Amino acid sequence: MRRLVDLSVLVENSASEPMEIRVERLDHINGAKHFCAEVATRNAAKSDDRRLEPEDFPNGAFITLDTVTLPTHMGTHIDAPIHYGSDCAGSPARSVDELPLEWFFSDGVRLDLRHKQPQDFISIADIKTALDATKHQLKPLDIVLVWTGTDKLWGKREYFSHAPGMSREATEWLVEQGIKVIGIDTYGFDRPFVTMLEDFWRTGDRSYLWPAHFYGREREYIQIERLVNLEQLPDTGFQVACFPLRVKGLDASWVRAVGIVNG
Fold it and tell me: The whole model's pTM is what?
């Protein structure tokens, strides 16, 4: 029997999210008034005296319309190459709508990195050791999910600041194996913002600033940030679906990431 595992956080205003979602709803009653007024305006412009009244709908109620203001990097989302920089490997970096669908539905492998401490880099050695434990042989277009356990802090302020992050070297190694999509259950793919900034201010070394993100200017790859429920997946033997919305020019897109476990 096939089992579906929801890997996406609920998009909501939260102590874990410095960004904000705003929703304005045109409700059933006001929607009826608004739509009828629009019909009257259009008909008047055509010298058409036909009318529609709210009472013509059941209980005077029409259908709702929500207007959502939502940053592309809020909730579980993918980062497109154009997010990392304007160019990738010497060519214009691609936006979400330009990416192949095949990247976002493929076999998955879960790497257990729960032993990594907050603020730690996840290294090549960490990735290789976790991969060896799965006995999985990576192949191009596998979707790699990095399991740190940080999603258990979701809803708390610590979620934003208490997490390990991918190193440039570990990211590069996975991409060199033909991996295009790498997901993680933390706020961001790199180490927390405050950690990167403190290390930069302490040393003056700019390589501490978003090293995994900036690697995406050299080779094309995609991050999924803010996954959840990775403990419900096996190490291997599942698929991941994480299709982005097809909105022209976006630097990122919200996804409903799902693990598909067969058997």
Answer: 0.93
Retrieve residue 107's tokens: 């076999």
Q: Which of 110, 134, 102 lies closest to 184, judged by CA?
A: 110
103, amino acid identity: W
Q: Which residues have a Cβ under 8 Å from the Cβ of 96 and sit 6 or more positions away? A: 78, 80, 244, 245, 246, 247, 249, 250, 251, 252, 253
Q: What is the pLDDT of residues 6-56, one digit of tens each?
A: 999 999 999 999 999 999 999 999 999 999 999 999 999 999 889 999 999
Backbone angles phi, psi at 33, to 5 degrees: -65, -45
Q: Is the pLDDT of residue 263 over 80?
A: no
Residue 163's Cβ-count burial label (10 Å; 0-12, 13-18, 19+) is buried
Cα–Cα distance for residue pair 238/26, rounded to 1 Å: 41
Q: What is the DSSP letter of 190?
A: S
